[in-house]
Sequence to fold (577 residues):
Amino acid sequence: MNPSTALATVLVDELLRGGVREVVLCPGSRSAPLAYAVHAAERAGLLRLHVRVDERSAGFLALGLAKGSGRPVPVVTTSGTAVANLHPAVLEAHHTGVGLVVLSADRPGELRGTGANQTTVQPGIFGGAVAYTVDLPAAESVPDQNAWWRSTICRALAGARRGPVHLNVGFREPLVPGRPGERDEVDTWPELLDGRPSDAPWVSDQRSAPQSPAGPLLAHVPRTVVVLGSLEHAEDTVKVMDWARGHGCPVIAEPFGRIVPGAMPGGPLLLGCTRWLDAHAPDRVVVVGRPTLARPVSALLRRPGLRVEVVTRGEQWADPGRVAAAVHDFSVLGDLGYLADQPADPPPGDAAWRAAWAAAGTAVDESVAEVLADQWGSGLAVARTVSDALPSGASLVVGSSNPARDLDLTLERTVPKDLVVQANRGLAGIDGMVSTAVGIALGSPRPTYALLGDLTFLHDVNGLLLGPHEPRPDLTVVVVNDDGGGIFGLLEHGAPERADTFERLFGTPTGTDLGALCRAHGIRHDVVGQKRELAAAIAEPPRGLRVVEVRVDRSQHRPLHARLRQAVEDRVNRLLP
Fold:
């Protein structure tokens, strides 16, 4: 065992002791000591290894594995641009608090800054996006390194509770293990390289999460609406819905997390009904998580005279409009003490106000169903069909452009179904979604599906690139193919007066044959042309990786959304006196 092998072996052993069970590896020579160490751990049955040739895809695969399993997941790369390719996944992990552990190999100190091949300044490359960063020098045959290496891993895993971490590790040649029985430095190594007894971590972190306060922090305000955005933990949505139910608060919820009944159907559509909203405006809005999908939600928060309070985890809170009057820790939603605030007999006006919101929600739901009844060839109808057909217990990974917004407007909010919806909403980019979905499918016991647009799918096509020896996910990917950037057609850029520039600058059609692409990767591909065919494809349990393509007409997005908004507004306004 040479010094580089010793260092890599100790690092991997301590990661295992800290609970790591999945590792993503990208091929490289400088990172070879880590590759040999994780491979040995896999052969011993201690972890599951995933090898990917594209570091960008590998980063998002690790992100998805961490989301699906709830454990930190390391991704191992060689030096140079390989590390830089992880930056998008690191940024997404930073903004969603996911435990992505970057293990980047580097040249030893004497080769840095000399023009040596494949060297750049790797320490600090991710800036403030990592919760912990360290630059471990190449191993030397000196004492007191074992404790240093192991305690460093413990610090990194502690940091991974809050988000991504970066360990940059120098390795000096030789980079391959010695032959069995060969005498080398380990025979005269100045200290034992063992960990703690009983496979315990070097540092046992006994710190617990902050305890919920004994009393409530959110006072009862009769006319309160809850706006629920994306949250770091899927189960947190249940706590939010319980709190809202206990206070009789209508909920405008984005379609993420664990979906439970009770939120307003098509919330953004209702908020667009200005006459109705003026007559039934809330006095307070409690924002939980990061709402990022709908402009009507942002408009609600800017209403004059409205008090906005934010509930958050950690030190940061979402308030891009700078309208928040108070910020509360999420722990206020963790017990039932808040019920002491609620009047036993709410004033009649409160009951009438809540009933008006409930009636409006029913009107929105009926309008959506009527409009979509004859609009099969649309992203809205596809989103509704997919969500309705998903089996109880499923996980749905949603792309960041139109699919997330289509689901926001069409998701069934009244029928109980054990469904978890996940998305990369930290930065809301389209990159890495196939790899993220593959990671979630591999890391979660739930049957997993994905709903993506064609550009999102094509942007991460390397997520389909799995070698013959790699664990294969059970994942069905539904691709809504409108041949381009359909979301821009719903924004100002898609207005008719800008039609002469839209297609090249924003529409960006590619004409890609998705079937040929899937065949090149050895992946099953089906085109469905009817609602019942799509529902049947979703009803079929995922077995291996499968792509289901639904072709829609992008030119119909804008008029269909306008028709839906008008139908909702007409029906809701009929509820006014």
Observations:
- The chain has three domains: 3-178, 224-342, 378-552.
- Residues 210-216, 336-344 have pLDDT under 50 and may be disordered.
- The chain has 19 helices and 18 strands.
